[in-house]
Amino acid sequence: MTRARLVRIGVLIWLAIVYTALWGNISIANLLAGLVIGALIMALLPLPRVPVRGGLHLLPLLELILVSAYYAIESSLQIAWFSVRRSGAPISGVLRVRLAIESDLVLVLCADVLNLIPGTMVLELDRASGEAWVHVLDVGSEEAVEQFYYITRRIEGLLIRSFEPRLQEAS
């Protein structure tokens, strides 16, 4: 069985699970209806093929998961502090960061990871220049801005090492 066929079967099963979960009742009828509706969705609204290059390296991926969870917790605590402190709301702004990620899929993953960190939101990605514009909650000091760039570079590096090993070998 080819990889593409396995992916399509996985997507079909996922759509059936989502359909069943939306109904809130696990039954054979809901699972079968989910499979039929999932097959119709896949046939009538096909997603474009995304070229996937590189591979998957588990140790950098595990580190990426742990680092992302740490930054999410740290940012959540920072936002909680901002909400209870007396000095008011922090100074927010939009920062531009240039990313060295080549793969479109990994670039989207990078935006998703940055969006999961409270206090940041990717506003725009420019594939041609490799730039991202990110709204950051706290840009009130040079230290806060440098912290944002450090976190972004660390996440970017882990994504590259996890999914784009050929870039790592070339540098």
From TrEMBL:
Superkingdom of the source species: Bacteria
Compartments (UniProt record): Cell membrane
Family classification: Belongs to the CPA3 antiporters (TC 2.A.63) subunit E family.
Topological category with respect to the lipid bilayer: Multi-pass membrane protein
UniProt keyword terms in alphabetical order: Cell membrane, Membrane, Transmembrane, Transmembrane helix
Gene Ontology cellular component list: plasma membrane
InterPro entries reported in the protein's UniProt record: Cation_antiport_E
Name under which the protein is recorded: Na+/H+ antiporter subunit E
Membrane-spanning parts: 6-24, 31-48, 54-73
Main location class: membrane
Molecular functions (GO terms): monoatomic cation transmembrane transporter activity
Organism name: Nocardia vermiculata
